[in-house]
Task: inverse folding
């Protein structure tokens, strides 16, 4: 990596990308640990068998741990569209955050710069920049409702649904739209709703409603996951 200044802290926890895969996705996480240094120690400890390509501290410090050509162990079991080996197809970014507080301004600035740098080299499209909870809704909640996805979308680094008239509530249709967007068809509508709201309606609660339906349908229509050009 040359466009940004990064601190290097090499992790031994990586392998080859399987089947000749190249990164066409970015997965954003939070560390859920007390400090960035504690998270770095964990991600670089062979005993834990976890890692990420990058970690960003609250002050904007970017730590590079695994080369992008290699397969970091950040995603685990999950799915996005037809892709089931997320680690082989993605670059993982950890943000130092406990999950219950806002993400620091300097950290978000650094994340935006890093995302611009990565997508310029790998031609990753905004709809393929996702959260850990998007690809594993039953298992993970990060980066959580305090993460500002809309800010990324304004910068062309994510997507955001357009507001339209509420649609008739239909759980099957809601799940079908989220599957068209990328969520796993093996995940329940309830789990998908929770992940979807954390990302697109973070202050909303209650049962599935017409606004959820409309936003999910817009995502499905404008940003369908590209199954034809990619394989699992």
Result:
């Amino acid at each position: 990596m040359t466009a940004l200044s990064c601190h290097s802290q090499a992790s031994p926890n990586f392998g080859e990308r399987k089947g000749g895969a190249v990164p066409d996705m970015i997965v954003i996480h939070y560390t859920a640990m007390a400090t960035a240094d504690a998270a770095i120690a964990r991600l670089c400890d062979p005993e834990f068998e976890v890692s990420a390509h990058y970690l960003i501290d609250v002050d904007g410090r970017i730590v590079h741990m695994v080369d992008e050509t290699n397969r970091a162990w950040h995603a685990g079991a999950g799915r996005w569209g037809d892709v089931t080996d997320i680690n082989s197809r993605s670059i993982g970014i950890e943000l130092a955050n406990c999950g219950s507080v806002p993400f620091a301004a300097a950290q978000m600035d650094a994340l935006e710069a890093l995302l611009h740098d990565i997508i310029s080299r790998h031609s990753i499209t905004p709809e393929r920049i996702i959260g850990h909870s998007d690809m594993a809704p039953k298992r993970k909640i990060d980066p959580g409702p305090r993460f500002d996805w809309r800010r990324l979308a304004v910068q062309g680094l994510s997507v955001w649904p357009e507001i339209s008239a509420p649609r008739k509530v239909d759980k099957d249709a809601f799940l079908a739209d989220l599957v068209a967007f990328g969520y796993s068809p093996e995940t329940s509508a309830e789990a998908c709703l929770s992940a979807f709201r954390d990302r697109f309606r973070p202050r909303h609660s209650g049962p599935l409603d017409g606004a959820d339906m409309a936003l999910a349908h817009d995502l499905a229509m404008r940003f369908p996951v590209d199954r034809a050009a990619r394989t699992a």
In short: Residues 105-122 form the longest helix (18 residues). Helices lie at 36-43, 86-89, 105-122, 132-135, 149-154, 171-181, 189-200, 210-222.
